[in-house]
């Protein structure tokens, strides 16, 4: 068998025989299924799957794509196929708080996140990140004011297009994307919301949580949509707090939750484990 | 030393010397501090403490109460003193779903919850609970309709008074207490809210959570106040769910969270570990 | 479509085309795959799967079994097929501590565990369980001494055979099964070990944990094998403890972990989610 | 009141009146208790406390130390007093895996860990850490062979003495300290053990865990003692794994557990929250 693996993800209206048809199609072009996850949503009657396969003998990718295309047409299937060796091109947007950035950079450096970091955009100047090793990474300082917002978003979009960005990560980027940009980036822009949604939406959620006296705080990674704080949730996690914790302690504890929730979401997204299902997600966790 | 232990809980405006004064007072009447927790809320400038102590020689309770009274007056202190051997009298209110009731009964039977169950009130008939051993426990069937609600609440209050109830537990009691009764039971009525507040308030929170596609569900135990779902939170916990979980699965998984959150809240309350701090709580966890 | 669902579980040496072949086989007899999990163990080169399906039109079970038999022969496949409406017959063995028993009984009563409780065997007399409603459940008091152990195990085995028991649950049964009985019950006898294995094997693990000063305690559900405390692990969970916890507190907190770990293991086992893989398990969690 | 806070930690044989005496002593020198934790170990009959206080008017530290000295003598008390503004001097020992180092450096840079990093010692050359910003931090490359071990440990000890190191952190330092050095660093050297002790001691614990098929993996931060892997445990945590995880996945998931467990242990140690109690610890968690 060859070394390369491929990830096929797809969704389509459910009907009998989908698995058989896809499995047969892959088998016929010499594919060997290594891992498979599927989910049948009885509410929407949609079927979702992620299949990792390789080729028994020679890579037969062209024939495979042709066969899948034909099948997809018949099944009204939306599908993606990519080699695990193809690294996703990721653009990171960040503001002053850099804990998520630091975490992503570290995981990328040691090879845990198999991505290309194709750029970092910040509304703060490069000096903010002087302790990070950004050598070899394009950095754009795009300060945002109400007056410049439209223009700066245009530049972000230009970067996305020019560098063929696969995924935009809002790593505590404290600017709200316009409806227009959100829509253009639908399904390929992940935000970390520093709260356990839908608990405390909006600004300063840790202060809100403190005021309410909750006993757990959390964070939420979600796809960005025009409807702020309402995008499809990918991952959430929490940590226990107590009456002793002041807002600053919540912010400190929150940093740990945020970075691990965001990095999981990015990891799963690039590994083809997250599929959109309307305003929800299907996540085949690792 | 004698076998009995006493729990002193108090709160007062913070000022230097409180601990020294209380410790000295207890020492002077022959008390030996076995365990102490304290918390100084810098926002409200209130001081909270829980002290477990026994007497080195003979129990000197009368002198102890007199001394504490004097001290309390000087410090504008609210305080409670009880022997750990005095079991709290608990009234459980329940509706059709009996998982929290079953859990409390079991913990009580094996001596884990050192309480007296002074009665069970349900808006469902006794047959609902035929699989539980309620022998020796007063059971009142008080069905509630809009017309009878006031009258039935009067009977509940009568029970609370007649039996000198220390704590009312709403163990998935699906009736909303009136503002009046909530107010009378302030600080001694614990509800289990089948949601991670303030995520999904109101009815059918697991269905709401399912609709929103969250990745964690939770439950919240809180003191009942007139402001529904807004009472001081005592304890919360969560469990991970996935896209595979249907509303019924959430309800099933929720039962486990609800019963452990409620039993912890009750356990801590009767052990003097929960102190009210405005609309929040101070919880000295075990 | 018909209402009944079927669970097919199987394992076999891995080779290309297994999924395609099984999916095709089911499709050909009118089956519709509703849910599928699979796992390819690259170390042992074994393939594991669980497939839930129903029939599009009429239930075609006989043809389905015939087709699967043929396929299984070709693939050297071990397989099981059962209707979700067929309840597993479960025998519970218990000793003095009844918290796991109480938990299983409750989940069974409310329909959460879709099993038939075909009997309870205890080395303690029936009076021990007077607070439980055991009406309609066969109860056998089989006290064990070194002298009677062989004979009592023979009676247990007789019960297993006579009542066609599918699963034996050791719900804190404080007798060690003989190698012989363990072997006969291989893969259908689940034990709850009151420790996070392999941390503290053997007797009084909570006391061992206390002595060592660990900060988390746990419990382990595993299949029983002749090699005590070494059987394939199905599920584990932990809870945080502190220096304040005495051995009794660990035992108390341990009860909660034990019952939830055991009930999950039983739930997953009867739902066909646990497959044996040598001395390990494959668990397709719900 | 003045801005500075002080942390007093002490332990002594338990007897009535300790809290009263200490509280009185602090009060008499103008101290105001802001936070207090205490623990009475009934097994060893030792009493442990941590008290944070400030001075109502002027800092009266000399008088305070004199008064505490006298008291300590009478109570056979071991005690430490330090200003929260005095930063602990920390030496980090590291080998090739730098995830714990990266984490500690980040927390230090943003002020979360209020320490001075007084040096980094590695048995690997400085180039290993080229992506970290080590500017301003002394770095010593001390490669260890069986022949040079004694000599290199002497140099480490020299560094500890010269720089008045308060705490040595073994941040995945893959060399076993000699009994002699372990003993000299007793109570001020924290190791992260990449396993949930006492589950899998020794080398390659994640591979051991994989082989055993456990469902949770963990990490343990403990004080270093001559008895390898047996030092007093400060903190532990776990993460859920599944049959899908290969040893490499366990190593990856383990990194996250290790860094958060180690950073918590260091945070609590420097904040005076960890007290030694024989081969166990008392941890007043934040």
Automatic annotation (TrEMBL), chains A, B, C, D:
Listed Gene3D superfamilies? 3.30.70.260, Formyl transferase, N-terminal domain
Pathway note? Purine metabolism; IMP biosynthesis via de novo pathway; formate from 10-formyl-5,6,7,8-tetrahydrofolate: step 1/1
CDD domains in UniProt: ACT_F4HF-DF (cd04875), FMT_core_Formyl-FH4-Hydrolase_C (cd08648)
Q: What is its EC number?
A: 3.5.1.10
* Catalytic activity annotation: (6R)-10-formyltetrahydrofolate + H2O = (6S)-5,6,7,8-tetrahydrofolate + formate + H(+)
Described purpose of this protein according to its UniProt entry = Catalyzes the hydrolysis of 10-formyltetrahydrofolate (formyl-FH4) to formate and tetrahydrofolate (FH4).
Q: What is this protein called?
A: Formyltetrahydrofolate deformylase
This chain's source organism reads Bradyrhizobium ivorense
Q: Which gene encodes it?
A: purU_1
């Amino acid at each position: 068998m060859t070394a390369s693996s491929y990830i096929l993800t797809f969704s389509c209206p459910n009907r009998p025989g989908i698995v058989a048809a896809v499995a047969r199609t892959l088998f016929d072009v010499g594919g060997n299924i290594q891992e498979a996850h599927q989910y049948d949503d009885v509410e929407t009657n949609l079927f979702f799957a992620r299949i990792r396969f390789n080729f028994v003998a020679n890579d037969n990718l062209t024939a495979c794509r042709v066969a899948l295309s034909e099948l997809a047409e018949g099944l009204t299937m939306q599908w993606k196929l990519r080699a695990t060796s193809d690294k996703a091109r990721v653009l990171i947007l960040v503001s002053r708080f850099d804990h998520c950035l630091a975490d992503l950079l570290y995981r990328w450096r040691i090879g845990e996140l198999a991505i290309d970091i194709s750029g970092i955009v910040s509304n703060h100047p490069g000096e903010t990140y002087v302790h990070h090793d950004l050598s070899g990474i394009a950095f754009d300082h795009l300060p945002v004011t109400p007056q410049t917002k439209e223009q700066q978003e245009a530049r972000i979009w230009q970067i996305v297009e020019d560098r063929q960005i696969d995924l935009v990560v809002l790593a505590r980027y404290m600017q709200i994307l316009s409806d227009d940009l959100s829509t253009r980036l639908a399904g390929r822009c992940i935000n970390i919301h520093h709260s356990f949604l839908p608990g405390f939406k909006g600004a300063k959620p840790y202060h809100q949580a403190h005021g309410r006296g909750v006993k757990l705080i959390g964070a939420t990674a979600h796809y960005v949509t025009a409807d702020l704080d309402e995008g499809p949730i990918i991952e959430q996690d929490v940590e226990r707090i107590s009456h002793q914790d002041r807002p600053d302690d919540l912010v400190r504890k929150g940093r740990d939750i945020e970075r691990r929730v965001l990095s999981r979401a990015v990891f799963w997204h690039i590994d083809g484990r997250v599929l959109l299902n309307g305003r929800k997600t299907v996540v085949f966790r690792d």
